[in-house]
Specification:
The complex is a heterodimer of chains A (308) and B (104). Chain A has a single domain (4-307), classed as Thiamin diphosphate (ThDP)-binding fold, Pyr/PP domains (Rossmann fold, 3-Layer(aba) Sandwich), CATH 3.40.50. In chain A, strand 5 and strand 6 (165-166) form a beta hairpin. Chain A has helices at 4-8, 26-33, 49-54, 74-90, 108-113, 116-124, 175-180, 195-207, 221-224, 231-240, 267-270, 285-307; strands at 41-45, 65-68, 101-107, 130-135, 161-162, 165-166, 186-190, 212-217, 247-250, 253-256. Chain A is α/β, with parallel strands linked by helices. Chain A is built from twelve helices and ten strands. A two-stranded antiparallel sheet of chain B has the order 1-4. In chain B, strands 2-3 form a two-stranded antiparallel ribbon. Chain B has helices spanning 47-51, 77-81, and strands spanning 33-37, 57-60, 63-67, 89-93. With 104 residues, chain B is mainly beta. Chain B has a single domain (20-93), classed as Alpha-Beta Plaits (2-Layer Sandwich), CATH 3.30.70. Chains A and B meet through helix 1, helix 2 and helix 10 of A and helix 1 and helix 2 of B.
């Protein structure tokens, strides 16, 4: 098993000097993911916080080959790169046994919404790629518009709370299960507060032959509106309240990796976040109740899926 | 930073100088508070290194040695997550020198 001390002595593939917000969760996620393979790595990055903040021209925070094409096609780009290297191997231009890893990266905007079609196509065609989505629940890079990953009841700039609305009215899309429905060999959900979980899943994803998908919850002090030092605490609470269950699906078989000893009420996760502040007004009590019920339903369903 | 004109830029915005963002000192954003490392309390768990978003924890010869203020933005995650009995990272007030002209 990997030790933090050893991981810390590895070379950073994403380096300091990036412009991500203070207290941002994205670098912590990629600190682990990029250490999960020692093979040469090629990354295609969808437009989003990570892409914008790490490559402010003429600077780059990437120590690996990195491509940005557009918002919607990170998965198509990396699939094309993978196919090109396959062809080069077939033609004998590079050794057949040379190991190269291909990683697609996007936020929830570039993955749940805009890039879904490209991702669906790439995994359906069976490219040997890994796709990591850092889900910060909003279009955080452009001012916090709602995405299909934004939680029910959250106030976002395009789903603001007010006298006529309690925030976002729709339940979030379950992207991980959409990817599972593609019958890919490996799909998982993780969170940066459990680094071993994240590291192991990333390692498994890289070692998987064929497409692998990793959905990682990413705290965002700017859009979630909380004290920026509390990110890891919030990630822990998301797992303890079962809002963000940690699980993996290997060839159709579900495994829940973390079951809280005591399932906490969703209030504990909602309360520190400014985007949910309005839910604690008296008139929004039914929204809170609905929130808890839906989380309970999803959790029960997941446990059932595991027992199959 | 030397003055670059469009003539020096690579075609197609290709950047061959991998990892050159280390020249951006994000520590200049820090305002009001900064972490202070107390070595004798440190149990070398590496959680601060793990959870630092700005790669600002100094690790030398397999040990956490302190904080790189060139990059630390003062978010305070390291201090919150520090598990040692007596915290080995505490947030302290930091006086900042304002650039000339903004004196009130």
């Amino acid at each position: 098993m990997a030790k933090l001390k050893d991981l810390a002595s590895m070379e950073d593939r994403l380096v300091a000097g990036h412009g991500l917000c203070l207290g941002c969760g994205i670098p912590l996620i990629f600190k682990m993911v990029l250490r999960a393979t020692e093979d040469p790595l090629i990354i295609a990055n969808a437009t989003g916080c990570l892409e914008v903040c790490t490559t402010i021209f003429p600077r780059t925070s990437w120590n690996v080959t990195w491509i940005h094409s557009a918002f919607e096609n990170a998965a198509a780009t990396i699939a094309g790169v993978e196919a090109m290297y396959k062809s080069l191997k077939r033609k004998g231009r590079i050794p057949k046994d040379k190991k190269i890893k291909f990683l697609g990266v996007g936020g929830d905007g570039g993955t749940y919404d805009i890039g879904l079609q490209a991702l669906s196509g790439a995994v359906e065609r069976g490219h040997d790629i890994v796709y990591v989505c850092y889900d910060n629940n909003a279009y955080a890079n452009t001012g916090g518009q709602r995405s299909s990953a934004t939680p029910f009841g959250a106030s976002a700039t395009t789903s603001p709370e007010g006298s006529q609305s309690p925030g976002k009215l729709q339940w979030r899309k379950d992207l991980t299960k959409i990817l599972v429905a593609h019958n890919i060999p490996y799909a998982a959900q993780s969170s940066p507060h459990r680094w071993q979980d994240l590291y192991n899943k990333a390692k498994k994803a890289f070692e998987t032959e064929g497409p692998a998908f990793l959905n990682v919850l990413c705290f965002c002090p700017t859009e979630w509106k909380y004290d920026e030092s509390q990110g890891i605490r919030l990630a822990q609470l998301a797992a303890d309240t079962c809002i963000w269950p940690l699980y993996e699906v290997e060839s159709g078989k579900y495994k829940v990796n973390y079951k809280p000893k005591e399932k906490k009420p969703v209030l504990e996760w909602l309360k520190p976040q400014g985007r949910f502040r309005h839910l604690f007004k008296e008139e929004n009590a039914p929204i809170l109740e609905e929130f808890q019920k839906q989380v309970d339903r999803d959790w029960e369903e997941l446990l059932k899926l595991e027992s199959f | 930073m030397s003055k670059e004109t469009w003539k020096e830029l690579t075609i197609g915005t290709i950047n061959l100088d991998a990892g050159n963002s280390v020249k951006n000192l994000t520590g200049t954003w820090r305002s009001g508070k900064k972490p202070e490392f107390i070595e004798e309390n440190c149990i070398q768990c590496f959680f601060c290194w793990l959870y630092c978003p700005h790669f600002a924890i100094l690790v030398k010869d397999g040990e956490v040695k302190g904080i790189n203020y060139d990059y630390c933005t003062g978010c305070g995650i390291c201090s919150v997550e520090c598990p040692s009995k007596e915290k080995s990272i505490v947030m302290v007030k930091e006086e900042i020198e304002l650039a000339g002209g903004s004196k009130k």
